[in-house]
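User: Fold this, then the next.

Assistant: Folding the first:
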Amino acid sequence: MAAIEMTRPVAHRPLARLMERLTAWNAARATRVALSRLSDRELEDIGLERGDIYKVAYTR
């Protein structure tokens, strides 16, 4: 049985990077969906316009 190398930082592991990217993508998707369900009036109440949704969701 091969030993798993635990000395490298998690960010350098390909699977960990993939999982981080998938998690970030899913969070952005969920934010986009939630904001898209709001009315224009509700968006205005929080200081957004419909055109801002993508930028808000996908900006880190």
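Now the next one, as you asked:
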Amino acid sequence: MMKTRVNLTIEHEVLIKAKKYASQIEESLSELVEDYLKKLANKADSESLIDYIDKLEVPEIDAEIDFKKAYYENKSEKYGF
């Protein structure tokens, strides 16, 4: 994979803290930034739960069925009440 150089402008204090953190976890600052950008890109690419639900097929349900009654009939057969 090809790497590309990027110039960033950030506050000096943020840079110092970021370098210190990168050193503590034994990674380069470039690796930290790249990992973060990958997470952002994947998050942007992923579909939200609402979008996924909206795409689900709506099942055909008979309006005449009393689901509560059917549930209790099934349980009474199974458990004998």
